[in-house]
Design a protein that fits this description.
By secondary structure, this protein is of the alpha+beta class. The chain contains 4 helices and 9 strands. Helix content is about 30%, strand content about 25%. Strands 1-2-3-4-5 form a 5-stranded antiparallel beta sheet. A 4-stranded antiparallel beta sheet has the order 7-6-8-9, with helices on one face.
Amino acid sequence: MNARADSKRSPVAGITLLELLLALAVMGMIGVALASSYSTTGQVWRRLGSGGAEVDQALARADLWAAVEAMPEVGPRLPIAEVFGAGTDGFWMPDAEGAVTRIALQDGQLLMEAGGLLRALRGDVGQLRIAYYGRKTVRSPEGWSNDWDGGTILPRLILIETWDSAGIAHPPLALRPALRVRQSVISASSPLPPG
């Protein structure tokens, strides 16, 4: 008798215990991978659902940075009163179309009003501090100031600091007025590099 002939399985014999265990192990790994992906997807959706306002605020801050950097530089033909006004509680500037953009604290939010549309830059703001860096006039020393009264040239930096109602500081916003104009005239012989 041939040993090979005896070891052949019958086509109706079914599956072995080893094949069953192997199939269960593979199905278990697939189940763990699916459960993990569903859990991760749920976390992402929860964060996106609660973070919609944060995304809108981040986009509004990006628009503010772009608008401030695109401001025209003041000079003999363009006095600062037509380009920029600042105080301790906010500042204003016209955009490229001539509509005025205002930044101010209102109802516990740092708001930007541009073209008649109010957009939140930060929510839950209990305290606001705006500081300006640069020379107010050609002859004044460079330094930080809480207002820009009497300034005849634009500040080099605007620092917006906010704290929430519990006194915890938000990350500050640092803006560079007329940065695009300043960078467009810098050459290899300029004392300061752009940026």
